[in-house]
Design goal:
The protein has one domain. Helix content is about 40%, strand content about 0%. The longest helix has 14 residues. The protein starts with 13 loop residues before the first helix and ends in a 10-residue tail after the last helix. The mean pLDDT is about 95. Bound molecules: fe (ii) ion (FE2) (2 copies). The site of one fe (ii) ion has 7 residues, from helix 1 and helix 2.
Length: about 120
């Protein structure tokens, strides 16, 4: 839900912008996926805008490469489908409050290198 925050303020690097806001409050795995998702998402539309569809390849081998590919495939890309089954914003409200109420840069939250299975 938060991976595109700042898109209106940073249309050319919204992924980095969003990651900089989220980084103090989420696991490293999550902030890395947010920061790099633009490089992965272009695989789906690069051919239509003259972009490099293989931009994500520069990240291949990174611990979180597959996580970012999965994130884009399961959620980011599929959300462009007008028939995508979504929950109302109110469903996420308490979770968003909980995330931004965390102590910034809490090592117990950031857990550098930790890799959790991505779930809905
Ligand atoms: Fe995005
Ligand atoms: Fe997105």
């Amino acid at each position: 839900m938060l991976h595109d925050i700042g898109d209106i303020f940073a249309p050319y690097n919204h992924d980095e912008y969003a990651a900089s806001i989220l980084r103090p409050f989420v696991r490293e795995q999550c902030s890395w996926v947010v920061e790099k998702h633009g490089d992965f998402q272009i695989v789906y539309y690069g051919q239509h805008v003259g972009g490099n569809q293989n931009k994500r390849e520069k990240h291949r081998g990174h611990t979180f490469f597959d996580d970012c590919a999965t994130f884009c495939e399961r959620w980011d890309q599929s959300s462009f489908d007008p028939d995508c089954d979504t929950l109302p914003v109110s469903h996420f409200e308490a979770r968003v409050h909980e995330i931004f109420a965390r102590t910034p840069y809490d090592p117990a939250v950031l857990r550098p290198g930790a890799q959790e299975k991505l779930v809905n």
